[in-house]
Amino acid sequence: MNPFEPSINSNPFATSEWAGSSAFGNANPFGQLGVVPTRDSFDVARGLSALDNKEESETFSVSEVRYKPPSPIIGLVSNNNILVFALENGHIIRLNLLEPAGLEDVEIVRGQTIVKMFLDPSGTHLLLVVNNEDTYYLPQNQRRPQKLKVRGVESVAFQREVQNPSQGVQILVGTNTGQVYEGFLRDGLQRYRPVFNINTEGMNITSLVFEHFPGDETKFFTMAVTPDRIIQFVGGPSLDLALSHPIYRVLPGSLPHSQLRVFSVRGGLLTSFAWLAKPGIFHGSLVFGSQNPGDTVMSSDTDLLPYPEKNPARSMVLTEFYFILLYPNKIQAISRLTKEVEWEKNFDTTLVSLAHDPVHNLIFFFSNNKVFELSVVDEDKNVWEKYLQMNKFEEALQYAKTAAQKDQIWSKRAEYYFSSSKWELAAKCYAKSKKSFEEICLKFITVGQHDPLRTFFAL
User: Fold this and answer.
1) N or C end: fewer C-beta atoms under 10 angstroms in the chain?
2) First CA to last CA across the chain, in angstroms?
3) How far is 73 from 364, CA to CA, in rounded Å?
């Protein structure tokens, strides 16, 4: 079991070029390094061919960079084109994809293994936890990690919108004792104070996220998950006072690697969440309004999606229209609309974790000796058709891209209203379709409905 809670990613390498990974293009991150892996230590595979059922897809494709590390890869994190991966020997590799020649190899602490990494949305602030529970801080452009007086860290939530990340970032920290702390990172940890305690022995805070309410910098929404429950908070006027009124939702069973994932469109306000729990994926929309402390931000559309496999997934990424799930030997995409598996790919290596750079929509996953990139292209391509099958006509029109698609939507909408005896609505929709005049007149005359035809003629 990989100890990392994934939210990030890494750089595998090649002496002559990067290939098969859209994040890297043809740049060689080792080109100007004094120490370069030998040619025998790696080779590069361009886009993998489709081998398994459901692998053929215009939306999903996997590229592999084969790399033989000096020590097993145990974690990857990524944000804002900054990639960090951890090796079992206590080193990290840090790479800016925009400057691939400037790769850094940093030893965090000799004799200890890195078990968790957390990178803020700007890629500036990196926190690392080693196996003796010590925590280290390594900001961008520094090579000497700073040991913090923080132990037992299980999860970190970073302030998402920061004008100047180099001036510091506000954080929430979840621990393996069920406590949540509020802090501020700038040249180290400037403050660190407890703000919540779940008061349940052995209850890890495995994921955290917080967000300002729109238009109100003094009102916060916070979500946290443990192996068996999801907790939400609304409050303020400061983050340290915002976690006073928890709302719990408990699901059966306990999943040690329980994960919380959220989605926002192009870095905007959070719109949805997904919780990787023991019985399945608990998910729904987030609706911000006039909530008071103790109120929920989850909408009424929350649902539990059972895993399509026998066991829970190992890791998850949430995109606008898909749940991306990782299993030990498989990656899988489930439509958030139809709840069906639309794509999957099998592997002959044991996969460890997924990592996501939401700023640039890069998705990586890895085993101990291989790194892959999952490309997701035009994921909204057939969304209009899925909404149409669900009779969600307004949503279907929103995602329709051609006149033929819109005509199909108006025609089905008219048929839907006609079969429900909603004659006036049916007439208005027929008027926007390309159905023939004779066909529409005959339909209404056959059922003795002449008045709706006047509506049709008027349009």
Assistant:
1) N
2) 63
3) 13
Both structure tokens of 358: 């939401």
Using CA atoms, how far residue 239 sits from 196, 209, 242, 264, 267, in Å, is 11, 12, 5, 21, 21
Count of CB atoms situated within 10 Å of the CB of 301 = 10
pLDDT exceeds cutoff 50 at 371: yes
Res 314 pLDDT > 50: yes
DSSP characters for 389-452? HTT-HHHHHHH--SHHHHHHHHHHHHHHHHHTT-HHHHHHHHHHS---HHHHHHHHHHTT--HH
Q: Using one digit for the tens of pLDDT, what is the confidence trace for 79-100? A: 999 989 899 999 998 888 788 7
Cβ atoms 315, 353 nearer than 8 A:
yes
pTM of the entire predicted model: 0.86
For residues 46 and 356, the model is more confident at 356
Give residue for tokens 């991150």: 29
With cut-offs at 50, 70 and 90, classify the pLDDT of residue 67. Answer: low
> Half-sphere exposure of 336 toward its Cβ, with a 13 Å CA cutoff?
21
How high is the pLDDT of residue 1? 42
Q: In the numeric block, which tokens belong to residue 314?
A: 């190992």
- What secondary structure letter does DSSP report for 48? P
| Amino acid identity for residue 289 in this structure | G
Residues 6+ apart with CB under 8 A from 173: 150, 153, 155, 156, 180, 181, 182, 183, 192, 208
pLDDT one-digit tens code per residue, 285-295: 999 999 999 99
**What is the DSSP code string of 75-89?**
EEEEETTEEEEEETT
Q: Residue 115's closest CA among 146, 136, 145?
A: 136
Rounded Cα distance between 87 and 277, Å, is: 28
Which run of H or of E encompasses 455?
helix 451-458
Alpha helix ranges (H) inside 140-255: none
Give the residues across from 446 on adjacent strands.
none
Given CA atoms 434, 436, 441, 444 in this order, what sign does their dihedral have? Answer: negative
**Do residues 256 and 202 lie in contact, with contact meaning Cβ atoms separated by under 8 Å?**
no
Q: Are 219 and 236 in contact (CB under 8 A)?
A: yes
Specify the DSSP element, H or E, that contains 45.
strand 42-45
SS3 251: coil
CB atoms within 10 A of CB 176: 17
- 387 closest CA partner among 418, 404, 412: 412
